């Protein structure tokens, strides 16, 4: 590598709490730093827990035309072509079994489900706490509708358990059937077993001809842990969950304080 060359060929960034500020915008400073890294030969890839329908408007607003890993790794999406390249779905029979076992252990759960596809709806039960924002959801009127179409993941909430407590109970009870991740405040997800941001990122990186050893990743939540394990370097935001900070190679400023730019600028 020539002196002064940018040391990575791929920059993987989570969206919420990482690339995006609280108002879902990306600062000019961060845009400039990513543009400079791209000009220096690196590719930028978004790796988000959000499924494609909840990610697309943000990518379009950013003018982002590359690949994105969505749905916790289940979907590889070509933003420029508005095309789904790969999609992995949750086995609905296994998911139903996992939910019934988990409810037998911890009591009633509030549920939501993300349907597969470019326009997959998110169905929510009446007691599921949906975060304020522009993201569309469909009220679940009949529980049977949960299983009526292919799903890429489910969301669970509990009346008294914290996110971390619910996720721990789920891993203990049904961890042999499904994967469980905490992806944000109030967001505990049930995923196909073996799926993670790392599996999706490795698929996308292969398409780009880039190796793990050439990748730097930025994130803020426990669902970013596998991505940090895959990439050569994992950088947690100052606002990150303690579990992610514990495995990070570095910690940068928060998402509100241009943490990605703060870290990339010296490398440029």
Describe the structure.
This protein is an alpha/beta fold. 33% of the residues lie in helices and 24% in strands. The chain has nine helices and 14 strands. The strands form two sheets. Strands 5-4-3-2-1-12-13-14 form an eight-stranded mixed sheet. Strands 8-7-6-9-11-10 form a six-stranded mixed sheet. Helix 2 runs parallel beside helix 9 and helix 4 packs across helix 5. The radius of gyration is 18 Å and the shape is globular.
Give a short synopsis of this structure:
With 268 residues, this protein is of the alpha/beta class.
Q: What is the alpha-carbon Rg in Å?
A: 18 Å
What's the overall geometry?
A: globular
Low-confidence stretches: none
**Helix amount, in percent?**
25-40%
Number of strands: 14
Elements, N to C (H/E): EHHEHEEEHEEEEHEEHEHEHEH
pLDDT averaged over residues: 94
Strand content: 15-25%
**Biggest β-sheet strands, sense, barrel:** 8 strands, mixed
Strand order of the largest sheet: 5-4-3-2-1-12-13-14
Q: Tally the helices: what do you get?
A: 9
End-to-end distance? 14 Å
Output the structural class: alpha/beta
How is this fold's topology laid out?
Elements: E1 10-13, H1 15-19, H2 28-39, E2 43-47, H3 52-62, E3 67-70, E4 75-78, E5 83-87, H4 92-106, E6 110-115, E7 122-124, E8 138-139, E9 151-157, H5 163-174, E10 178-184, E11 187-192, H6 197-208, E12 215-219, H7 225-230, E13 233-236, H8 242-247, E14 250-251, H9 259-267
Parallel strand pairs: 1-2, 1-12, 2-3, 7-8, 12-13, 13-14
Antiparallel strand pairs: 3-4, 4-5, 6-7, 6-9, 9-11, 10-11
Helix pairs in contact: 2-9, 4-5
């Amino acid at each position: 590598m020539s002196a002064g060359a940018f040391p990575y060929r791929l920059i993987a960034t989570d969206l919420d709490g990482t690339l995006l500020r609280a108002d879902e915008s990306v600062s000019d400073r961060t845009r400039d730093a990513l543009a400079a890294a791209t000009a220096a030969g690196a590719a930028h890839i978004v790796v988000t827990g959000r499924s494609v329908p909840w990610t697309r408007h943000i990518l379009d607003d950013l003018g982002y035309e590359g690949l994105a890993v969505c749905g916790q790794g289940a979907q590889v999406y070509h933003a420029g072509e508005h095309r789904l390249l790969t999609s992995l779905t949750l086995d609905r029979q296994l998911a139903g079994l996992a939910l019934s076992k988990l409810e037998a252990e911890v009591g009633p759960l509030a549920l939501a489900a993300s349907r597969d596809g470019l326009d997959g709806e998110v169905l929510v039960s009446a007691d599921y706490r949906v975060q304020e924002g522009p993201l569309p959801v469909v009220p679940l009127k009949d529980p049977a509708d949960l299983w009526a179409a292919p799903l890429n993941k489910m969301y669970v909430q509990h009346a008294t358990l914290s996110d971390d407590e619910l996720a721990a109970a789920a891993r203990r009870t049904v961890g042999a059937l499904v994967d469980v991740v905490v992806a944000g405040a109030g967001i505990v997800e049930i995923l196909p077993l073996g799926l993670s941001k790392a599996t999706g990122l490795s698929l996308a990186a292969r398409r780009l001809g880039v190796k793990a050893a050439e990748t730097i990743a930025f994130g803020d939540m426990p669902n970013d842990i596998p991505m940090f394990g895959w990439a050569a370097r994992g950088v947690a935001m100052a606002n990150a969950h303690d579990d992610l900070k514990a495995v990070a190679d570095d910690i940068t400023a928060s998402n509100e304080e241009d943490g990605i730019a703060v870290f990339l600028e010296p490398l440029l």
